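Researcher: We're teaching a course module on how sequence relates to structure. For the next exercise, students receive a sequence and then see the predicted structure as tokens, so they can try to spot secondary structure elements on their own. Here is the exercise chain.
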Amino acid sequence: MRSGILTGLIVVAACTCVAAAERPAQFSNGDILIIGTGDPNAPALPPGDPNETWDAAQHLVPSWMSVSATMTSRLDNPAEGFSREISGPDWSLALTGRITVIDSNGLVGLCPITGSALALDQDGRVVSSTPAGDMSLRWYQQPCPVMRPTGTGGEWVSTLEFHHFSVSLPMEPNVSYPSLLSRVEWSMYALVAGEFKTVDIPFAARDTWVELAPGMKILVEQALAEGTKYEYRIKMKYDTTKADYLQGGSVHLWRDQVLPPAVVLNMEVLNPAGQSIHDLGGGSFHGSGSYTISNNQVTGTTSGSGDCSACGTAATFRYTLASQLREQPVRLVLENIPVPSF
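Model: And here is the predicted structure for the students to work with:
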């Protein structure tokens, strides 16, 4: 349960991808943090409805970016009473890559912490097999839009990606060093939603609160649009047991808590044609926010300003919300990965 008072400053910026090999020292905007406590042998995830399936292969495509090999060998000082035998060498491999979202339907975020993993060598023999680790701490990142060249003409297209993830592969004892990994598979967890909706609010100041979801309201205190320039300030208040706001921080859950019924995934400013001013690019944007949390009650203010000559006048605030949230285990696979030699 949340308790006490927490006051923080949130800077609203473009999506920041965090290397999955490390837990970030400070969670980026768009993360959901879930903290587990209690018996470490208890299941990390609550049992879900077996009829509710989300096939990762239809939504996510992993690709490897690098493979590194590490050899460790150890000798303790015999003069200090230790054994004269050398331990090792012990080999381990690490695979890093990115995951491209080919179908974002239902997807809210992905936990970059990998669970159990299995690696086969060029002859199909198991060279690494790791059980699922401690998943009591999980945070879910939203995918980042990335521009990449594609096609023979080198056209640039925008894709959604999780960037980066890492799979640790300690080598099994007494196995030969592989020249190729014919197959690597590992588990992760996705956060998926059964329903998405958008709420559009005119880009205009008002003196009445608007409900985005049960337990969450906003008040547009300031909204100025002059030609290509715009500026706004929005108050927000909500109960984190009923709704939460990803772009404004993190959702903190203990093991005895559940995901909130609804979360705000994003807020965009649209021009009169219904286009996102931020997505059109070619301009500048600055945003910030401050929030106070006390006993699950959050109050705060978000403000922003920008100037985009190619975008037109700011006309609408659009909030995207997700509900019917659940955590979904997924299994990902890569094949025919070369291994560096010495």
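Model: If you want an answer key for the exercise: The chain has two domains: 15-70+90-193+327-338, 195-326. The radius of gyration is 24 Å.
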